Amino acid sequence: MLPFWLIFPWVLVVAGAAIFVVVTRRHRRAMDLSSLGLQRILQAVESTSEAVGIGDFEGNSLYHNRAHIALFGYTVEELNAIPGSGVLFADKATAKAIIAAIFAGKSWSGETDIVTKAGERLPAYVRCDIIRDSRGEPVGIFGVFRDIRRERQLAEEAARASKLDSLGLMAGGIAHDFSNLLTVMLGQVLLAEMEPFSRESVQESLTEIKKVTLRAQELTQSLKSFAKGETPSMALVKAPPLIREAVSLSVKGSRVQPVFEIQEGLTIMADETQILQVLHNLALNAVQAMPGGGTLTAKATAIKPGESNFLPVAGMSWVRISLSDTGVGIPPENLPRIFEPFFTTKEKGTGLGLATCYSIVKRHGGYLSVDSVVGTGTTFLILLPASDLMRVD
Question: Which CA distances in Å does 198 have to 170, 188, 283, 305?
């Protein structure tokens, strides 16, 4: 049996919807309810965070609560002015299934995409049912819509984190064994270089071996950083100079112009080396996406509790860092995979750069996301918990 706190909102919506329809359609029997009680129920329906819409069996909208108008953007009059049915649903087959269920006397509930007045497509949990009067006669239809973007995102984050945990354990083992082999290999090369009678050709080969070995060591370090268990060494860090250092170093020698829009006084509790690695990696990717030159804009600002509804944890202060380029952009089919380990579109890439960045930010209790349009550019967004002290003098 479902707990009362899950059932109560639906009971409230049904009760409020039934009262509204019966009152507006005067030919129905008047309900034995005081005006004060009616007012309280309607106020409750108006104040709920879920979007509630009520209509009749002729396809006319009768009522939208505030959350419904905020979600979809339509007033009752605007929605009634649009011909056809199922306007609010992206999938017309789903809309037909809902209508068929209602006319068959059944309720419908499930997840589907909805469409707002602005044309935005959003995932939502929807419940539609018949409104009945005290005699059980159908008098209208109600629909309740809940925006589940955040829920979907949390589910994707959990799945990605689980995948990272498993691959992290594997990467840690590989890194450990590989590092031992490289230590022996590099030691032998260094010993050979110390021999006074090495021929020139042998010396060239040894130099090349050393170069390859050092590259392999860099890969090992990436694997170690990616692997779980490397706890960040947290300290109070000034964010503005760290961002400027990472971006300036990345664009040096390129045709990319850096632009800084950074709020001064931002501080975070972080491992400075690891966050610098994240910023440098993201900035370097941006530079590589603009081989002919362009602009790399670094922004940073504080977000205090209540200033945004779209935060990993409400009630906390955050530092929002974004790096935006004017490069080639990322194809839509690649966007869901760019933080996956070993996924790369670069010819000589390892596929560990962005995965490492994601892992580091998550271990800091933060959030890393990307938005990109092909031919326009890419923006990486980092949210990190702000320190208690917002300024370091």
Answer: 40, 14, 43, 67
Percent pLDDT > 70 in the chain is 68
Digit-coded pLDDT (tens) for 82-108:
887 788 998 888 888 888 888 888 889
Cα 20 from Cα 54, distance rounded (Å):
9
SS3 of the chain: CCCHHHHHHHHHHHHHHHHHHHHHCCCCCCCCCCHHHHHHHHHHHHHCCCEEEEECCCCCEEEECHHHHHHHCCCHHHHHCCCCCCCCECCHHHHHHHHHHHHCCCCEEEEEEEECCCCCEEEEEEEEEEEECCCCCEEEEEEEEEECHHHHHHHHHHHHHHHHHHHHHHHHHHHHHHHHHHHHHHHHHHHHHHCCCCCHHHHHHHHHHHHHHHHHHHHHHHHHHHCCCCCCCCEEEEHHHHHHHHHHHHHCCCCEEEEEEECCCCEEEECHHHHHHHHHHHHHHHHHCCCCCEEEEEEEEEECCCCCCCCCCCCCCEEEEEEEECCCCCCCCCHHHCCCCCCCCCCCCCCCHHHHHHHHHHHCCCEEEEEEECCCEEEEEEEEEECCCCCCC
What local confidence, expressed as pLDDT, does residue 286 receive? Answer: 93
Going by C-alpha positions, the residue among 188, 149, 16 that lies closest to residue 71 is 149
Which range in 23-32, 153-162, 316-325 is most confidently predicted, on average pLDDT?
A: 316-325
What is the pLDDT, as a whole number, of residue 222? 58
Write down the pLDDT at residue 300: 96
Tokens 């992290």 locate to 168
Q: What are the tens digits of pLDDT across the range 171-204?
A: 665 665 566 567 656 766 776 666 665 566 566 6
Stated pTM of the model: 0.50
Indicate the burial class of 388 (C-beta count within 10 angstroms; 0-12, 13-18, 19 or more): exposed
More confident residue, 58 or 243: 243
Cα angle, residue 226 at apex, residues 291 and 238 outer, rounded to 5°: 75
Taking residues 230-242, what's their average pLDDT? 85
